[in-house]
């Protein structure tokens, strides 16, 4: 889904959307239960340089929000703060406290 569609659907589902920084970019973020923000962005590097992706499946966004809301259960270096973290920990085990 495009960023605009994700934001509309998240707002419809009752999530608070805020602006946040992801590296160099201003991106949309979701306010979490603990007051922190999940950046709806995923960085990538190619021949042309560094870029950011802001389009995701809605299911991935919902799973990322759920994982980020459980950050308190995991070591600090295993927290999910962005979609990049979500995709990394989707394929790697998070270490519990």
Question: Could you write a compact summary of the structure shown?
Answer:
The protein is α+β, with helices and mostly antiparallel strands.
Question: What does it look like?
Answer:
- The protein is an alpha+beta fold and 97 residues long.
- It has one domain.
- The termini are far apart.
- β1 (17-22) and β2 form a beta hairpin.
- A three-stranded antiparallel beta sheet has the order 1-2-3.
- It has three helices and five strands.
- It is 32% helix and 27% strand.
Instruction: Provide the gyration radius in Å.
Output: 13 Å
Percent of residues in β-strands: 25-35%
Count of discrete domains = 1
Query: Any low-confidence stretches, pLDDT <50, length ≥5?
Result: none
Elements, N to C (H/E): HEEEEEHH
Strand order of the largest sheet: 1-2-3
Sheet having the most strands? 3 strands, antiparallel
Distance between the termini: 34 Å
SS element count, helices: 3
Query: Which structural class best describes the helix and strand composition?
Result: alpha+beta
- Per DSSP E runs of 2 or more residues, the count of β-strands stands at 5
Mean pLDDT: 96
Helix content bin: 25-40%
The oligomeric state is single chain
What overall geometry do the principal axes of the alpha carbons give?
globular
Give the topology, please.
Layout: H1 3-12, E1 17-22, E2 25-31, E3 37-39, E4 42-46, E5 49-53, H2 58-69, H3 83-91
Antiparallel strand pairs: 1-2, 2-3, 4-5
